[in-house]
Amino acid sequence: MRGAGRFCIDHQASHIVQESPHALAAAGLDSAAFHALADAIDQAFCVIEVIFDGDRAIDYRFVTVNHVFEAQTGLHQAQGRNMRDLAPGHEAHWFEIYGEVALRGHPRRFVEQARALDRWFEVYAFRVGDGVRPLVGVLFRDITARREAEAALRKTETQAQLAVAIARLGTFRQDTETGLVYMDARMRELRGGGEAEVMPLAETLQRVHPDDRPRLLQAVETAIATADESGGGGFEVDYRILWPDGSEHWHAANGQVEFEGEGRRRHQANVLGTALDITVRKQAEAILREADARKDEFLATLAHELRNPLATIHNALQLQAAAATRMDAPRLQAMLDRQVEHMMRLIDELMEVSRITRGVIELKVEPLDFADVLRNAVEAARPAAIQAGHVLTLQPADTPLPVLGDAVRLAQILGNLLANAVRYTDPGGRIDVHAWRDAAGIHAAVADTGIGIPPGHLGRLFALFGQFDKNAPRSQGGLGIGLATTRKLAQMHGGDVQAASPGLGLGSTFTVSLPASDGPAAADDAKSRPGSLPNPVRVLVVDDNRDAADSVAMLLDMYGATATVAYDGASALEALAQWWPDVVLLDLGMPSMDGYEVATRIRQTWRDRPVMLVALTGWGQAADRDRTRAHGFDAHLVKPVGLEALLALLANCGGAASPPK
């Protein structure tokens, strides 16, 4: 039978091996006593007669075999037969070994594979008799299972070593008796290098961050205290290592207490463990925690910012409903307009930062003189500065400032910086703007005498939702997205925005830097703001919100359009059969028949009739615009639609309408 474990000859076998030459010679090969003795052995045994061709052993014949022989070799009815007949592929070196034992009389102990039998054997071979006949006694054991287990163990160890290498794990072993710590090369590398392979525990702790040493020691000591044969004794702990260069590196260590010995001598011998550098993961976690905190802060700020105008609007509506109100209508209307405009601005900021951070903003780049953009931005900010009691100055550059950029987005960058300067400067402050060109490019700086910025907060100003303490003196609140948007827009132009401040209460300077263009700057192409429509335009307004539909129609009528309304999709199609417009303003989110279906039916029913279909929706992402375009819309306007934008869209329409045929 196949066995495993270390080859060991028992007492009976030892006696036979030691006494066989004399016992067999005295008793004779065919004696019943010999056969009884051979069968009494628990290990496989046989006597072979080696067959020579001259001095070269070429085969052997089995003279006798014991009862274990067949189970250990797999050879049936071998006695009296030659090995080459039983296993034609048997290797020649087996014959050579037994031939040498038969001729020289020197016993051989060896381990060898018999490929023809698909087995490994541990063998003790000795000469039998006086050497007149080439007889050899063979005591052997099938160790195939043991060899396979050893090979599997070696493979497992190799795979484990490979896994450790791939995972970039460092390994260590702490002797629980001596306290010495053994570290492999990777472990020493993870600790910054320059350490010995074997060190006392106290020395290895010198590189552990002082704040983390108690936690690491506690984890290991608890593992040792709880380890027993039934389980326990494991630990997991994260800690920081201080490299010789002063840098901090996070490690994640996992370990287990190892036992050695048998029975009463069984004892804790080592603490085995691995360590992995998790510095990048820890940094990412810190970034996520900070982002999550900024998100929570932003949501709280947004709620606060929205409550203010909503409270005012609510109060105004209450006043409007009160019969005895003393507030005149124009003043009430102005109040509502201001608060609605404020809410629209907040929502626009949110939509803008979403578009920019997702990279869906497309710049309309053209040659520009940045000096013109800067001058227009300063003039746009001047009324707010005057109202706040500030002095706003512009020091123009001595030379043109040619850039390639999007005029609207560049104006947005400067407008954000100027608005912040006005907002964060106490009444009676000063805001100075100047521009220049140098070898690095085009620059514009906005300097104020405002509340300033604490040195430790300069780095987070441009992070999304980044603000310093709202509770700080003279803090002005806000959503914390303006500067993030500003910097991102500048970076989209190949530039950047930097902030500087001597400290809290000492003012701030924000500098925009852009790459200079070699081409000439474009002439000012400012367009006049649209007034009344230049051509009569027929507009069908379709919206299930009656107030929204009626208010849009009333505004269009005031500016020279002829507008009619429909409050659902079916009514819109009926109206089109009687009255053909130049433009259809379609709300998308209507019940029963939404705006997409209405647009599709219009295009299918009146294929040859010219009409502009304009989507009115609260969704303004690129995917939303693609969808409306696919359904036949010519334009996509995001609610609430500004009057100027709507009039500009309608300005080029008109005169195409006639009754449907």
Report on this structure:
The protein is of the alpha+beta class and 661 residues long. The chain folds into five domains: 11-148, PAS domain (Beta-Lactamase); 167-277, Beta-Lactamase (2-Layer Sandwich); 283-357, Orthogonal Bundle (Helix Hairpins); 366-514, Histidine kinase-like ATPase, C-terminal domain (Heat Shock Protein 90), CATH 3.30.565; 538-650, Response regulator (Rossmann fold). It contains 19 helices and 23 strands. A six-stranded antiparallel beta sheet has the order 8-7-6-11-10-9, sandwiched between helices. Strands 2-1-5-4-3 form a five-stranded antiparallel beta sheet. Helix 11 (329-357) packs across helix 14. The chain is elongated. The N and C termini lie far apart (102 Å).
